Target: Homoserine dehydrogenase
Amino acid sequence: MTDQGHPFGSDHPIGVAVLGMGNVGTEVVRIIQEQSQDLRQRVGAPLVLRGVAVRRLDVDRGIDPELLTTDARALVNREDVDLVVEVMGGIDPARELIGTALTAGKSVVTANKALLADYTGELAAAAEHSRADLYFEAAVAGAIPVVRPLIQSLSGDRVNRVVGIVNGTTNFILSAMDETGADYSATLAEATRLGYAEADPTADVEGFDAAAKAAILASLAFHTRVTAADVYREGISRITSEDLETAAAVGCTVKLLAICERVPASPGEPGSAQGGKDRISVRVYPALIPRKHPLSSVSGAFNAVVVEAENAGRLMFYGQGAGGAPTASAVMGDLVMAARNKFFGGRAPGESVYAELPIAPIGDTPTRYHVNLKVADRTGVLQAVAGEFAQHGVSISTVRQEGQDEGARLVVVTHHATESALADTVAALAELESVTSVTSVVRLEGTEE
Ligand code: NAP
Model:
């Protein structure tokens, strides 16, 4: 504030601490320094970098070494620090540092989805208590504005579904497998060589990263606290070149999807166990989607999120979901908002979890399935296989049979069935004498029925 208490045109600096100077932090620091004049105009006061916390001081980072410190806690606690940007990642010490900043009334901008997926409640409460802001646009889908549209633009609408490709590494791998026909291991090795996959790719390929983002998206979309543990998760490491090949044969490709869905209460359900409330289903898994689906053309390391709202209809957000500069763009947008709020006395919307919708178990969630079987090449097999599907109440949409050297391949596409009905069917199929193996079961999403 100026001495007159008027926010505009102040020379009084807003002190910023940046925690972490890796891929994202480096770009955040660069933008703060290179675009200081524009930022000053947009905020109404100069943003001044007070310090940058890192682990190692013996690395040349191209900035004044005086700005660097390994004591992140002391940096956060400095009196001339008003805003904290957390881009160090991980749970500890990020959780404590963000908590400390918020408790002291210092607004925080973070890109840390892993932390938010489990601790948003705790951090939002600290922010609420001290009237500080907690911003996290960069935590989901990098540069793509999707958090703010869900929190603000759609706050007067009713969101029914959010479906996204929110992990660039897995999308790069699946796109490459689709294009080249190469198998999973070779494609992962290539992704690692090109820098699209980390040395330990588990968080990406097993769907943990996407599940954290799904938890954040579902919380925002359905005004309900959803944590990573509420998200059903499967990764892509079991997807084979054969899955891509059979998907292509039915006009589909395979994508790792994060799906957040409102499951409406059945009519006449008020007396039911759920008390007539809608439920929500939040899940991450690889799925076939038709090539004409808007998410099918999202290739390489790009991300996209489709939001379906009652009045807005279908909205699609597309762009770079990761990378230093794109992610820093989202961080900077939040930083400008937090800085403006400091001056104007406004606040970011706090956590909204009033709806408290129950989570629907995956076993109750109906989807379509694409089941790939190796079977004996003789008469009666089709009938036996179809019989097991019927026996378990799983209705078949199409069956395709291809002869092979050591038998035949059957590809069965089902209508909607629950996970539990399908699991029972698969177990029964595996027992059939005429079925050599159930090679794969992949869900089918994005079809009309
Ligand atoms: P990164 O390259 O690994 O950088 C982490 C930085 O934090 C490094 O500078 C490291 O210091 C510093 N650091 C780590 N622990 C520290 C500690 N205890 N004390 C002080 N400094 C510490 O990570 P990143 O890729 O920039 O990602 C940062 C955050 O952004 C993560 O939460 C990530 O999930 C999120 N994010 C990243 C992307 C992306 O494309 N990279 C996209 C969206 C969101 P040293 O340099 O000394 O090792």
